[in-house]
Amino acid sequence: MATTTTRAPRLGAVLRQAERVTPLELFFDLVFVLAITQCTALIAAHPSWSSVAKGLAVLSLLWWSWGGYAWLTSVVDPEEGVVRIAMFAAMAAFLVAALCVPGAFDADALLFACAYGVARAAHIALFLIASRDDPPLRRSVNGLAGSTAIGVALLFVASTLDGTAQAAVWAVALVLDFGGPFLFGVEGWRLVPGHFAERHGLIMIIALGESIVAIGVGVGAGIDAGVATAAVLGTVVAAALWWLYFDVVALAAERRLGEATPGREQNSLARDSYSYLHFPMVAGIVLIAVGMKKTLAHVDEQLELVPAVAMLGGTALYLLAHVAFRLRNTRTLSRRRLVTALVFVALVPLALEVPSLVTLAVAAAVLSGLIAYEALRFAEARGRIRHGVVSDASAESPSGG
User: Fold this and answer.
1) By the 8 A CB rule, do 91 and 25 touch?
2) What digits encode the pLDDT tens for the residues 87-108?
3) Cα–Cα distance between 36 and 243 in angstroms, integer?
4) Quick one: pLDDT band at residue 392, thresholds 50, 70, 90?
5) Gap between the Cα atoms of 339 and 249, Å rounded
6) Backbone dihedral region for residue 214 (phi beyond 0: left; psi -120 to 50: alpha; all else: beta)
7) With 376 labelled, which of 54, 76, 91, 209 sits at a CA distance of 20 to 30 A?
8) Extents of the domains making up the chain
9) What are the φ/ψ torsions at residue 392 (nearest 5 degrees)?
10) CB neighbours of 391 closer than 8 A, spacing ≥ 6?
11) Which of these, 5, 145, 128, lies nearest to 77 by C-alpha position?
12) Are 341 and 288 in contact (CB under 8 A)?
């Protein structure tokens, strides 16, 4: 339900009342496009397990920062008062952090920590403004400020280290940052369900856009029949990823969030389903993009182990995140998507033996088959959910068991 408009003239913050995402939020999210592209480039430049770990570690930090602003703008109107200016400042800091991604563990480690710290500090400052007359929210913000300060401080420490020591400090920083909400609870947070779900849906589109960009970036000097075929198959894969999320899953999840009791139940659901479980979806898409870039570069050659695991394992990760997402929302298991994820893992040895174009074709075929089966097998349930005839997201559906 929309929040009644409340003004705080001294500080210039206005509580959100609209359910729709604002143009400024969309503008802010464009910075995340560069962040995703940079993480993909970090992994694809020199594919190795180390580069995968580094790329996903940086992506997780930037995701957590972006998610914090999604929570913030579900409380305050980002286009009113001091919040607008602070959002622009946060965009600049976020942009600098994204530019530093390739050197986040090397020459640009300190600058990355500084830029990330500024983005997080602006987020906490705006939340302090929003919570001035809301004691429960203020208690939650104070807890978040503590875990954030520790996480950012550890990044500064990590910038002075290298190798295993640096990786260990980064790991601790990530655990503390992501684990903070479990330590100080969720009771004090507030959100607008429709806005919160839409904001995460839009960021999924941005992430899927990276898979499209990877097709173009991966093309070498010329375009032949193989490259054209790979481009078409890559589009099929991207479209399938979109379909799997937006056809039913996103609609059912948004309704479930809206029906949850405001307070602990709704906030816990939002935290787990969106702040946590959307990250492996985005990470999976980034890994798929890495595999697509390598495929388009050499369509007639086999993928090496890391790119093969990135593309097929990334798809499996995306599907497993869907399984966990539904399990958290409706306590039901999507056996089809679980089995399909296992199929993608089992396809990795094949990818090492056949041309990458064949691997991409198999991936497109498996995803298309999954979609066709769900659409036909659960046509009636799918129609009810898509057209709002029923609001029970736990009803048997294409994404269910």
Assistant:
1) no
2) 999 999 999 999 999 999 999 9
3) 21
4) very low
5) 18
6) alpha
7) 209
8) 12-190, 213-401
9) -85, 100
10) 255, 259
11) 5
12) no
